[in-house]
Inverse folding.
């Protein structure tokens, strides 16, 4: 019998009114009213906007979100008098017949409020009658591990069903709701479910077969363990985590230019694969750079703080964007770790939750030390991997050797040098060089923007060299001041030498000082002292990180000099910015600029030449000799060798992968912005602090709380919410929905947990296990609850349409990335390599036409990079790869806790016509023809086994074989059409196969890959 | 109760259901809400109703065509005539106006006045003042309502577009077209309810992001779909090479048949939806190319718009917009990039005006002749205005004042509403905000802007955020 699909829909619809959900309009009232479950949602939704946490909008000085407020005494009685609705103002106002009196008011401003339904009124009344027991909001109460209810003695159902503690909690709810568990799913469904849930890939036919045949009692548990050990587990988890932290390959705003953070993505994959403790995972992301002796992995993890949307738009104001970035970070951290909707607090106190506006800015103040460019390209940090380290050492040794050979050669050059010297000495008599100060006294070049700490002092306040002022700079660690964007640029000439004067405080000298020059990029750095400042990458030596000597002598003015070649600049460079950076200590900075002459000689050489030959010091003689070596014709071969080595050295530097990491600098001042207005400086200055609803951190005397303090607090045992938020999201991955369905909102307006005790038990189990993620997944995936079938009988739908009570498994469409992965895996095209730079699968040409500054065109990757898993796709925020976008992949601009699971015609178009799927169908067809036997029936059976791990039914076979025969005949008659179909995609079709046959099997494969069943986790 | 009524009834219960989290990702209901406009089994009219059902009040219009002049057209050379500014040309801008105000690329520069670079004329019986570089728009002056007192809250392109489209500069909220599709449903069964077309030319092409037509937190099926003039008009709408229409139909039919067979076992309403979406996709493979093919339009029609089939111009897009309107598309948005005139505004704005003037007017005239203007609203304007202060020989971004024209059903023609000061710096009379504009457009469609809400993160969100008032004086 053919079932009319409509009838099923009707059943589903009609079932809604009968669903035993807490709020169905005609559901019976619970015997015992619970404030948090039954009353708080009503008060929150209808009353809190005017009588809640927002002090500025509070009407009649009444608040109903606190116990004091609810039981406040009035002249006329009390807001709520326990046991007596008629003596409770709350009740009187709700039922008042006077429209002016009745609450809630129908309309406030332009917003409408719904009146209470009869059922809601009855709930409030019964709550007051039963004594109006108050409860604090569940999410702010630190969880205590509840005892596991013993449900084992019940009956046969329980015996078959219960596999671990989770099932006891679930079964108790079944009993309350008068439900029974659904039977266990068959083995084929179980392995598909586990494989998609744990690694985001389908099982192979062989894996499914082996599992079906494994008769050992722990076959299932062994399978779970094997999948958890699979290297693809980390990729699956990363797909979810990257949505939360809004990981992308582009900056977001306006020109949406490229950025490199894929090392962070790989960090996430590896963290899950290595089962990194979640507390460590948290700390490394917030504060990896602040951990003692932070290694590269931890610094890469700290890239979390840099994942936000940034702008490069000309005309954007730094102050405005600095405010936007703070807000972005607060929204993300509070959503991801606290399940709190703090976004509204940017402008005002939260309307529903006890989150005052100041908490938004005090949470933001934790991030005030994150070094970044408010408007412009973010500085990438090169990462020195061990292989690169070895190569660098080898080249440096070779360079040192050539340099030595050059200086040894000086003796043999003496005569030639003498002639050259004599000629030059005449020219430089009297001196031809002079200093051109670019940053001097209180002046900066025209058009330049000053940033960082510009603390001018006068003669009376400290050393100023011979000027009216110098710039005092003092810090515990990294600090800098700089100019950028100068219109009056240094037009660099041959022989120019940069200089800057510095005075180090003898009592508190910096550990390192650095000069940086900007010719469009800051990758030109010279430094003196220890290697602390992370710019340019610690441990590297190149033009973007050149050590020029030890710290200058303290207690006197010292002239720092930088040759063009030291920092990779040439006479073609134009300098628009200069930065003065130091690591800790106290220093004074004075004139800086360029020294030049018409002869193209370094200043030291000129000075030395001006002296009589006999009066020159060793140093001066060497300066002359060294310069001569750089031009002596005899040394040409050695110089070439050096040049080639230097080029190789630069190439290594350039090949270093780069990423965005967090570097702490002196914290910016963070003010509370009234109404969120960044132009308003009247708000109070905020220090870092955690939101008051969750607790309070004490800073050590005289110390400022850091990102590390924040992350330590998040994963402390006292934190009431972080473990709950995380296990709830894990639950969603393995059951389809959270125990709290609003994964992003654990506040008053969020959903009450369906299984509060189970949620708390899981949260505490997570903490007790040492934040062991795989342990939690193992628990969830081996529970009897998980192993149920997801088939829903009409009766089951009627009883619990939305599956709140878990008397069956969830059934849902795969995530965008896994739909791609499935097609590639089934067809055998998948490249299973882990990590690396993002890749570009097929994308229709012209899709990026609206991007500008610069204009760009997407280039499809060739070879194996074309067939990588979806999560490695280049993530362009403003134009996400359209095939992923169609399946609800998030653009990664804001945290996404649960993607929508839509079902649209654009999805059908993508799966039917995107060359990815057409090519996969052909590759699949080739496999079917080669390995699937000879007869069409055998081949079809093989195809189903590969793609769905089951046999086709006779009805299915009939449909597909008929289409196969028809298309084979058509393609046999139209060779051009067959050839055209086989040409789709980069991989050439197997020429040894009959083209018509292959085209026809491609049609069959297309059907199979497009099936709802193929893209559904059942 | 018919299927449609049942669906509508259910959608009305949505807010209630969300309260208890019932609808968050709950597949069955989500599926029903996302029900495609495919023909119901009872043969009912193929039309998906929206959540506003019945309408809050009688609608004046059925659809909106938004001619979006992206980049920030100068109000001072389009719709806001400032003779005093001409007198002040080259003189310093009064500091009382500019002090402490946000400014974009003119940060830290001396601020001098730049007089209007083109003359204005009075057009039509109403004598509306319009810049003379828009002679064709001048001819329809008596149908236009010009608003001169509009202002926005964002000074850079990206956030300003976001503000104009979503009523907020915080990313992640639904675009207006998505709200309308969600609220009113669609009137056609083989095209999306929210279509975007783009063209460029006449100035620097500022980038524009897909988020400008994103459905935000609304179900993603309400996302705007971009129709392109080059390549596939809709992404992936073309069949693979070597697959005939018949073969494609075979594939789609087989998919649906196997899905039906599977559903008989597993009882999943999501599969029913999947089947109808494949049907819709298959139809689009015919309907979209047919829609985009202008070659059948009469020569006079092409000439009236100044369109050449397949040229991707604003003119062709206007003609396509009319064809979409005829087919019942709810919200049609035409971006023309090229209005960001930081320098050389005199020549540049004349150039870009030349690219949009004729077609904008032709669209209005064409709709009027067909009797469709009464049920359509045409909006013309950009994301912000430009400074009265010179930036060299151009103008910088300006968020305090901008101009727009509206035309069509329910709108008073031949009127100018609101005014800016003598410099065109601040609106001083009948000040209007983007939220007011949105409230007014929703009003014309039969929607009370305070009532079209969607619950997300515990809050009922609206297109007009927490503000917005219908601009009553401009209503017919």
């Amino acid at each position: 019998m053919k079932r009319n699909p409509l009838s099923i829909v009707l059943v589903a619809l009609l079932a809604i009114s009968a669903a035993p959900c807490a709020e169905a309009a005609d559901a019976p009232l619970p015997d015992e009213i619970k404030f948090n479950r039954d009353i708080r949602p009503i008060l929150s939704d209808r009353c809190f906007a005017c009588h809640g946490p927002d002090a500025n909008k509070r009407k009649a000085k009444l608040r109903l979100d606190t116990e004091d407020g609810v039981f406040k005494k009035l002249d006329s009685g009390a807001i709520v008098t326990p046991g007596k609705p008629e003596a409770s103002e709350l009740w009187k106002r709700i039922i008042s017949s006077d429209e002016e009196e009745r609450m809630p008011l129908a309309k406030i401003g332009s917003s409408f409020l719904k009146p209470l339904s009869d059922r809601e009124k009855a709930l409030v009344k019964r709550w007051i009658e039963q004594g109006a027991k108050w409860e604090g909001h569940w999410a702010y109460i630190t969880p205590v591990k509840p005892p596991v209810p013993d449900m084992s003695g019940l009956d046969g159902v329980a015996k078959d069903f219960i596999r671990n503690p989770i099932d006891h909690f679930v079964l108790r709810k079944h009993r309350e709701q008068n439900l029974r568990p659904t039977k266990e799913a068959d083995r084929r469904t179980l392995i598909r479910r586990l494989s998609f849930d744990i690694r985001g890939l389908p099982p192979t036919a062989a894996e499914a077969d082996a599992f079906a045949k494994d008769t050992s009692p722990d076959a299932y548990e062994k399978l779970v363990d094997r999948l958890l050990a699979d290297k693809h587990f980390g990729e699956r988890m990363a797909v979810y985590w990257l949505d939360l932290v809004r990981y992308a390959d582009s900056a977001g705003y306006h020109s949406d230019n490229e950025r490199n953070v894929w090392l962070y993505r790989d960090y996430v994959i590896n963290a899950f694969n290595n089962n990194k403790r979640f507390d460590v995972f948290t700390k490394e992301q917030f504060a990896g750079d602040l951990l003692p002796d932070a290694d590269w992995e931890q610094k890469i993890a700290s890239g979390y703080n840099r994942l936000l949307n940034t702008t490069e738009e000309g005309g954007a104001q730094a102050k405005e964007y600095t405010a936007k970035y703070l807000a972005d970070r607060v929204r993300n951290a509070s959503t991801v770790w606290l399940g709190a909707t703090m976004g509204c607090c940017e402008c005002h106190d939260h309307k529903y939750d006890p989150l005052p506006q100041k908490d938004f800015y005090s949470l933001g103040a934790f991030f005030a030390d994150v070094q970044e460019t408010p408007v412009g390209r973010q500085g990438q940090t090169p990462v020195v991997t061990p292989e690169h380290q070895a190569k660098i050492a080898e080249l440096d040794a070779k360079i040192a050797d050539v340099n030595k050979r050059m200086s040894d050669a000086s003796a043999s050059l003496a005569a030639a040098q003498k002639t050259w010297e004599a000629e030059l000495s005449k020219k430089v008599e009297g001196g031809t060089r002079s200093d051109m100060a670019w940053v001097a006294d209180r002046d900066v070049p025209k058009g330049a923007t000053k940033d960082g700490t510009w603390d001018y002092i006068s003669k009376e306040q400290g050393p100023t060299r011979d000027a009216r002022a110098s710039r005092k700079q003092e810090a515990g660690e990294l600090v800098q001041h700089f100019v950028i964007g100068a219109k009056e640029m240094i037009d660099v000439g041959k022989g120019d030498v940069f200089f800057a004067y510095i005075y180090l405080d003898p009592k508190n000298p910096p550990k390192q000082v650095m000069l940086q020059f900007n010719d469009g990029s800051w990758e030109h750095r010279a430094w003196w002292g220890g290697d602390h400042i992370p710019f340019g990458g610690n441990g590297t030596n190149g033009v973007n990180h050149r050590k020029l000597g030890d710290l200058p002598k303290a207690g006197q003015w010292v002239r720092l000099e930088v040759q063009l070649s030291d920092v990779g600049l040439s006479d073609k460079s134009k300098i628009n910015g200069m930065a003065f950076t130091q690591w800790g200590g106290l220093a004074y900075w004075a004139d800086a600029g360029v020294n030049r002459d018409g002869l193209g000689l370094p200043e030291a050489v000129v000075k030395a030449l001006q002296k009589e030959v006999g009066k020159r010091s060793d140093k001066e003689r060497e300066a002359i000799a060294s310069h001569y070596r750089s031009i002596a014709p005899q040394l040409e071969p050695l110089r070439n060798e050096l040049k080639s080595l230097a080029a190789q050295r630069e190439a290594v530097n350039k090949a270093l992968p780069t990423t965005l990491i967090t570097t702490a600098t002196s914290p910016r001042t963070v003010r509370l912005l009234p109404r969120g207005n960044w132009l308003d400086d009247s708000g109070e200055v905020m220090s870092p602090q955690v939101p008051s609803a969750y607790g309070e951190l004490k800073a050590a005397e005289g110390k400022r709380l850091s990102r590390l303090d924040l992350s330590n607090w998040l994963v402390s045992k006292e934190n009431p919410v972080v473990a709950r938020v995380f296990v709830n999201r894990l639950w969603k991955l393995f059951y389809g929905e959270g125990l709290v369905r609003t994964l992003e909102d654990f506040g008053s307006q969020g959903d009450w947990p369906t299984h509060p005790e189970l949620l708390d038990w899981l949260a505490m189990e997570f903490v007790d296990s040492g934040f062991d993620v795989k342990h939690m997944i193992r628990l969830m995936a081996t529970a009897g609850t998980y192993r149920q079938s997801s088939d829903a009988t009409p009766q089951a739908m009627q009883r619990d349409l939305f599956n709140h009570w878990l008397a069956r498994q969830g059934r849902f469409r795969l995530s965008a990335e896994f739909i791609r992965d499935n097609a590639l895996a089934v067809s055998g095209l998948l490249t299973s390599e882990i990590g690396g730079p993002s890749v570009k699968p097929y994308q229709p040409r012209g899709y990026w036409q609206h991007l500008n500054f610069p204009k760009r065109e997407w280039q499809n990757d060739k070879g194996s990079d074309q067939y990588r898993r979806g999560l490695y796709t280049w993530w362009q925020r403003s134009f996400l790869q359209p095939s992923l976008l169609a399946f609800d992949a998030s653009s990664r601009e804001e945290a996404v806790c649960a993607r929508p699971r839509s079902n649209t015609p654009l999805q059908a178009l993508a799966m039917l016509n995107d060359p990815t799927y057409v090519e996969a169908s052909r590759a699949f067809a080739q496999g079917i023809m080669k390995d699937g036997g000879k007869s069409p029936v055998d081949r079809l059976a093989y195809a189903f086994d590969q793609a769905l791990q089951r046999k086709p039914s006779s009805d299915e076979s009939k449909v597909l074989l008929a289409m196969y025969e028809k298309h084979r005949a058509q393609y046999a008659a139209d060779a051009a059409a067959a050839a055209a179909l086989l040409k789709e995609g980069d991989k050439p079709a197997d020429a040894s196969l009959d083209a018509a046959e292959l085209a026809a099997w491609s049609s069959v494969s297309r059907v199979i890959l497009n099936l709802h069943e193929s893209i559904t986790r059942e | 109760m018919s299927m449609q009524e049942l669906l509508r009834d259910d959608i009305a219960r949505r807010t209630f259901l969300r309260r208890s989290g019932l609808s968050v990702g709950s597949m069955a209901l989500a599926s029903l809400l996302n029900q495609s406009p495919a023909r119901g089994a009872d043969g009912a009219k193929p039309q998906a109703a929206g959540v506003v059902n019945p309408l809050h009040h009688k609608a004046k219009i059925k659809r909106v065509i938004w001619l979006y002049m992206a980049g920030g057209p100068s109000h001072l050379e389009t719709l806001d005539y400032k003779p005093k500014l001409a007198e002040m040309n080259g003189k310093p801008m009064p500091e009382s106006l500019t002090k402490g105000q946000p400014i974009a690329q003119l940060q830290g520069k001396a601020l001098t006045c730049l007089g209007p670079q083109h003359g204005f004329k009075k057009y039509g019986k109403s004598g509306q003042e319009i810049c003379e570089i828009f002679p064709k728009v001048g001819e329809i002056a008596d149908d236009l309502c010009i608003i001169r007192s509009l202002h926005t809250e964002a000074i850079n392109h990206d956030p300003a577009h976001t503000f104009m489209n979503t009523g907020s500069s915080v990313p992640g909220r639904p675009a207006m077209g998505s709200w309308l599709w969600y609220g009113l449903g669609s009137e056609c069964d083989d095209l999306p309810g929210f279509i975007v077309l783009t063209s460029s030319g006449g100035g620097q092409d500022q980038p524009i992001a897909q988020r400008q037509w994103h459905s935000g937190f609304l179900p993603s099926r309400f996302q705007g779909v971009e129709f392109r003039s080059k390549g596939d008009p809709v992404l992936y709408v073309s069949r693979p090479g070597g697959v005939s229409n018949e073969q494609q139909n075979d594939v789609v039919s087989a998919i649906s048949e196997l899905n039906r067979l599977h559903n008989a076992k597993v009882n999943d309403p999501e599969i029913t939806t999947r089947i109808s979406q494949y049907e819709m996709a298959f139809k689009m493979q015919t309907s979209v190319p047919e829609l985009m093919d202008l070659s059948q339009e009469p020569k006079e029609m092409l000439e009236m718009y100044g369109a050449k089939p397949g040229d991707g111009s604003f003119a062709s897009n206007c003609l396509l917009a009319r064809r979409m309107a005829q087919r019942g598309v709810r919200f049609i948005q035409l971006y023309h990039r090229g209005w960001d005139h930081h320098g050389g505004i005199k020549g540049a704005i004349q150039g870009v005006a030349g690219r949009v003037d004729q077609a904008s007017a032709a669209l209005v005239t064409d709709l009027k002749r067909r009797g469709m203007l009464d049920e359509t609203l045409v909006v013309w304007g950009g994301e912000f205005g430009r400074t009265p202060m010179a930036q060299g020989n151009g103008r910088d971004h300006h968020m305090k004042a901008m101009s727009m024209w509206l035309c069509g059903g329910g709108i008073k023609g031949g009127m100018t509403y609101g005014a800016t000061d003598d410099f065109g710096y601040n609106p001083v009379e009948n000040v209007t905000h983007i939220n007011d504009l949105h409230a007014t457009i929703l009003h014309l469609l039969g929607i009370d802007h305070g009532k079209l809400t969607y619950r997300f993160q515990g809050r009922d969100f609206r297109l007009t955020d927490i503000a917005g008032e219908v601009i009553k004086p401009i209503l017919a």
Observations:
- Chain A touches chain B through 134 residues (CB under 8 Å).
- The first strand of chain A starts at residue 73 and ends at 74.
- The two ends of chain A are 24 Å apart (CA to CA).
